[in-house]
Amino acid sequence: MELFSYFNLQTLFIFVFTFLLVFHLLDRKKRPPGPFCLPIVGYLPFINKEAPYQTLLKLKEKYGNIFAIQMGFVPTLVISDPYLIKRLFLMEAFCGRAPLYLTFGIMQGYGLICSEGQIWRDHRKFVAHVLRNLGKYKTASGRNLIEEVIINGVDDFVMDLRHNTGQPVNITPYLRHSIGNIVNELVFGVTYKMEDETWVYLQHLLDEGFKHVAVAGPLNFLPFLRHLPKFKKTMKFILEGKQKTHIHYEEILQSIDSDKHEYRNVAEAYMIELEKKRGNVGTFTKQQIYHVLADLFGAGTDTAMTTIKWILLYMTKYPDKQERIQEELDSVVGRNNDVQMGDLAKLRYLEAFTMEVQRINNILPLGVPHSCTEDRIVEGYYVKKGTMILPFLWAMNLDPNLWKDPENFRPERFLDEYNNIIKPEFFMPFQTGRRVCLGEDIGKLTISFFVAAVLQNFNVTLKDDYDLNENAEYGFTLVPRYYELIPTCR
């Protein structure tokens, strides 16, 4: 009996080995180049979890602008050619969301970030329309609604810095509070005091949640890990946080008068739309609305806050450039006048400085992952359905074939001889294609208003030295390591 079992196992092994060998020999499809990957885990064990973009940069140097790796169960195509990325991301076949556990296991394909197909098209169109309308609405001050909400947040932040003038301050809680309330007002129509218990909890979820859902996190690629004690804790945090925020969102939605015909925030727009649809809601379900609101809050707060933190850090490292921006502000705006939306286009060195920070320290070094929704040929290579596509922005922004002296921080690269802004087509801080950042315009306004107001009122220095060459903290976005700013009144 034991002998029989032995021969059965031996026969099975030979059969499986022969089948795989024949399958490999018959498969004539040309695959992208890439490193050897282990069974099941793929290349995950070899990726630097603190700085995955550095690992991929070394692979890019070896295999070129397009290469393949296996990330756990997820086949992945890494592309560092900006022109190819721009072309692919305009195609429907490359507009899917990456098959990550976060996307379909936790978020279940809801929202804007994790959805695809008809549900994504419906809600992207709806939210884009709402944001455009909010930008047209004039307030009593004569400003449009979005500008006024941003300026109110800026004023709060400047006041917080005034209370800390001349002493080291961790700007993160103040910045998160001010930007968070800008997003809260535009998305939900509510704002919170800094010490509000609900607001403190929502900020905690934002902070910790993004750390747990990093693109390179192993749970995204090996879902069975959720059963291990270490990842059970992560799953519990994310799922409980999701449930509690949805309960809070429902309370906000229920407080809205859906009989009104005009809206002043995204939540009101959704409730008015639900009233119009009555029983025929289609993709406008409560679950989908909760996830859209969460996406707008999370992405809108984190990306703007992180970018501003990087910009102010770089201001301290380049005091001569800080002074040049202040001279520009004094000339265009004046010391005692508030920055207006019409001033921003004239603050060209400030814009160039911001663009250079976004280039040299892109907060989304691996971009926002897409997926291929059908078998396709890309640059002669076979790419199968379900492949994750990573637009490798970090490599693009440091490519010497695209940028002169890319390792050097030089805002002047974005200015021509007449001091006009140059916008290279291979520079895409807000992504590109059909899924380009929905809040790009609001994000740009927020960043410009905050940085302009800070430098108009203060000189900024650091308490301690900060080495820009050391790796930053990588989660959903690339965040500067802890630093304390010293604002001094001008």
TrEMBL record:
GO biological process: organic acid metabolic process; xenobiotic metabolic process
GO cellular component, one term: cytoplasm
Gene3D superfamilies named among the record's database cross-references: Cytochrome P450
Keyword Signal: no
Keywords annotated in UniProt: Heme, Iron, Membrane, Metal-binding, Monooxygenase, Oxidoreductase, Transmembrane, Transmembrane helix
Binding sites annotated in the UniProt record for heme: C437
Superkingdom of origin: Eukaryota
Cofactor: heme
GO molecular function, one term: steroid hydroxylase activity
Alphabetized SUPFAM superfamilies for the sequence: Cytochrome P450 (SSF48264)
Transmembrane domains' residue ranges: 6-26, 66-85
Database matches in PANTHER family: CYTOCHROME P450 306A1, CYTOCHROME P450 508A4-RELATED
Family, as annotated: Belongs to the cytochrome P450 family.
Name listed for the protein in its UniProt record: Cytochrome P450
Species of origin: Artemia franciscana
Organism placement in taxonomy: Eukaryota, Metazoa, Ecdysozoa, Arthropoda, Crustacea
